[in-house]
Amino acid sequence: MSQFMDVHHGMKGITADQLREAHRADLALEKEEGVHFEKAWADPRSGTVYCLSEAPSAEAVQRVHERAGHRADEIHPVPFTV
Amino acid sequence: MSQFMDVHHGMKGITADQLREAHRADLALEKEEGVHFEKAWADPRSGTVYCLSEAPSAEAVQRVHERAGHRADEIHPVPFTV
Lengths: 82, 82
Description:
The structure is a homodimer of 82-residue chains. Chain A is of the alpha+beta class and 82 residues long. Chain A has helices spanning 16-33, 58-67; strands spanning 2-8, 36-43, 48-55, 74-77, 80-81.
C-alpha cells in the first residue's frame, strides 16, 4: 500500500456539501478496490480539489474516482511525508 | 486563520531527507509570520511537493517559504475539508 495525492481541476464553485457528497461516493466504493480515501481539501475559487489516499496503485485510485463520477486529473504517489 | 495547500514543482529526485530539512526550515521561521506548516508530501518522480498549512494569508505562507529558500509555485486556500 502506498500513499497518493490526487488532484481534480475545473471544480470552480464547489461547495462544502458537494465535497462531502463526492467523498461519500468514494468511501462507498473504495473497499472494492482496496483503496482508502483519508482526506480531501477544496479550493472553490481556483476549482481545485486534493484527495489523499492509501491504495495499492494509482490505477486503483482512479478506478474508484471514475466509478464515483469524478475522474482525477493528476495522481501522484507521495512516498515521502513529514 | 485559514488552511492552505501550496504546491512546489520542479523538485524531481527530492529525497526524504531533503523534504525533512525543507520542512524543518519552514518550522524554524513560521512563528514570525503566524503560520503553521502541518504536513508535507513529496512525489520525487514528478518533482511535486504539497504543503498543508494554517495561516493568516497566502502571502504569509509564501513569506515563510521564500525566507526558507523554496518559494511555492501555487498557494490555494482550502476552506473545505473532509
